[in-house]
Write a structure and sequence with these properties.
Layout lengths: L7 H5 L2 H12 L5 E5 L1 H4 L5 E8 L6 H19 L2 E8 H7 L13 E6 L1 H15 L4 E4 L2 E4 H24 L1
Parallel strand pairs: 2-3
Antiparallel strand pairs: 1-2, 1-4, 5-6
Helix pairs in contact: 2-4, 6-7
Length: 170
């Protein structure tokens, strides 16, 4: 079931709550929190797709899965929507920024909720690579030309950054 009231614009008001939930669940501040998936590129979705970028993932894989489930559960309690959470360290993020991985969907759009250039620059580099190739993504919503969407996403990111800089200068 799709909920139009869960649009990306309505969700922006909840970004601070998302940051609190992730911080509280991890017991530390992440390097980045990235919202992506159908909620971003369609304006609605059944869940939130979140990337949580941490400095280092330690311990057995089961600990990571437990943290992902905890964050998802806390988001549901606080916002009433399930989240598909993926915790990656910066190296794992870079390794997964390749055509054909689940992160190819970043070309369709993403929102950097928390984080800086160390998180976003590898994504933009990946999108530049996608924009120069011929990559197609098929999902339940349709068929997507990732090269075209990567170009649009890069442009939106740059426009957003220049808008933020001009707002800060005012």
């Amino acid at each position: 079931m799709y909920r139009s009231q869960r649009s990306i614009l309505g969700l922006r008001a909840s970004y601070d709550r998302l940051k609190e939930v992730v911080r509280g669940s991890l017991g530390a501040s992440p390097l980045g929190i990235i919202l992506f998936g159908s909620t971003v590129y369609m304006g609605r979705g059944r869940d939130l797709d979140l990337l949580v970028i941490v400095e280092r993932v330690e311990g057995p894989l089961v600990k990571r899965f437990e943290a992902e489930r905890l964050i998802s559960r806390e988001i549901f309690k606080g916002l009433g929507v399930w989240a598909d959470v993926h915790i990656l360290d910066l190296e794992e993020l870079k390794e997964n920024l390749a055509p054909g991985t689940f992160l190819s969907g970043l070309a369709l759009g993403y929102e950097l909720i928390n984080g800086g250039a160390d998180v976003e620059e590898p994504i933009l580099t990946f999108l530049e690579k996608l924009s120069n190739g011929r990559y197609i993504l098929h999902n339940r919503y349709g068929t997507w030309d990732l090269a075209m969407h990567a170009k649009l996403t890069i442009r939106r990111s740059r426009t957003s950054k220049s808008h933020e800089k001009s707002t800060e200068a005012s």
